Amino acid sequence: MKATITTTAHYVPEKVLTNIEIAKLVDTSDEWIRSRTGIAQRHIVAENEATSDMCTEVAKQLLEKRDLSPNDIDIIIVGTVTPDHFTPSTAAIIQDNIGAANAWGFDLSAACSGFIFGLETGAKFIESGTYQHIMVIGADTMTSILDFTDRETCVLFGDGAGGVILEPSQSGGGILDSILHTDGSGGTSLWVPAGGSRHPATIDTINEHSHYIKQDGKRVFKFAVKGMADVTQQILKNNNLTGEKIKLFIPHQANKRIIDATAKRCGISNDKVLINIEWYGNTTAGTIPIGLSEAVEKGELIDGDFLLLASFGAGFTWGSILIKWESHL
Ligand code: UT7
Q1: Structure confidence at residue 329 (pLDDT)
Q2: What's the gap in Å between 152 CA and the centre of ligand 1?
Q3: Whose alpha carbon is nearest atom 13 of ligand 1?
Q4: Structure pTM?
Q5: Domain regions of the chain by residue span
Q6: By three-state DSSP, how is residue 56 classified?
Q7: Separation of 218 CA from ligand 1 center, angstroms?
Q8: DSSP 3-state assignment of 90?
Q9: Distance 25 CA to ligand 1 centre (A)
Q10: What angle, 0 to 180 degrees and rounded to 10, lies between the N-to-C axes of helices 287-297 and 114-127?
Q11: Residue 166 class from Cβ within 10 Å (0-12 exposed, 13-18 middle, 19+ buried)?
């Protein structure tokens, strides 16, 4: 039995922060950000808005679109590195917010690969035959860990959430294959040094800004292109496919130059590559499900299309998932 995506939804906060506004905070320019990353603007949460609020919006949309009762949901999996709290989990907050009385759930920490890792996890639960409806949501409030005095990171990220409902496939399509990787030796290339159990928050960690995200951009860039391209080429090869056979490629949106280089190496033409980084920036676990939800809304996928997802993120974590699309409208 295979797992299939029956429903998609996304939510981004209303408030927009443009490059021009960021250039008033740090020494940067609209031109530099656009040309080096492809980003023009990002959405940012309102005061008092957090990751679970964005996820709850996504969860409500998913239920409505699929005409399900909250009681039908068996598991809620949330990929995030910016949960509302260390505990309770974001999944628990969503479960309560939507009244999913029969669901259990958990958060999964894999940074930009959070949605891909969550999708693989959810798919295995469906394939076990024990569960019928699983919500997989990828969401991050990156502005909660951004240092708006550090131009090397604060221009890159935004806030947003997207998600899907996974169900057993009726016709043998759905999630066909996946390849996932973790390489912890890249840990300190993209990380939040303090605020966890190694260096709990103190006045000093706050003064040093070490509870904010830090990145060695150049190193991550190199690993991201190689990691995403290698894993994408491998999954194509394992399934006797070429880039030409793919209808839509949705890569993680960290930098347009990374996306272009990856697609080129994999022989996937530009018209098949989803790029929306211009409008949202890097929403970490949110990028792939937001892109998927937008593509479905625009009717870009029909029955039998091959959809390829690929991610690369902190950890390092990376992976690719191949899907034979089944329409459930
Ligand atoms: O989602 C998780 C995975 N994350 C990623 O995949 C991100 C990977 N890395 C990147 O996307 C890119 O490395 C960045 C966009 C972060 C940086 O682009 P780059 O082309 O690698 O720039 P750079 O770090 O080599 O910096 C070039 C110059 C430097 O100045 P000098 O040393 O040449 O004088 C930087 O100080 O650009 C400067 N710079 C900036 N200038 C204006 C760095 N950030 C900025 C900025 N505005 N925001």
Answers
A1: 63
A2: 6
A3: 217
A4: 0.97
A5: 3-172, 175-280+301-324
A6: helix
A7: 7
A8: helix
A9: 17
A10: 70
A11: buried
CA 189 to chain CA mean position, Å? 19
Residues in the chain: 329
Backbone torsion region of residue 174, taken as left when φ is above 0, otherwise alpha when ψ lies between -120 and 50, otherwise beta: left
Domain 3-172, CATH class in plain words = alpha beta
Condensed to tens digits (0 to 9), the pLDDT of residues 93-148 reads: 999 999 999 999 999 999 999 999 999 999 999 999 999 999 999 999 999 999 99
User: CA 307 to CA 197: how far, in whole Å?
Assistant: 39
Give the residues surrounding ligand 1 with Cβ less than 6 Å away.
Answer: 28, 32, 36-37, 112, 151-152, 155, 190, 217-218, 220-221, 224, 254-255, 258, 282, 312-313
Sign of the alpha-carbon torsion through 72, 287, 138, 143: negative
What would the two tokens of residue 32 be?
């530099």
Is 43 marked active-site? no
SS3 235: helix
- Asked whether this chain's domains 3-172 and 175-280+301-324 adopt the same fold, the reply is yes
> Token pair of 67, please?
């005409």
Q: Which residue has the tokens 């024990």?
A: 130
175-280+301-324 is classed CATH 3.40.47.10: yes
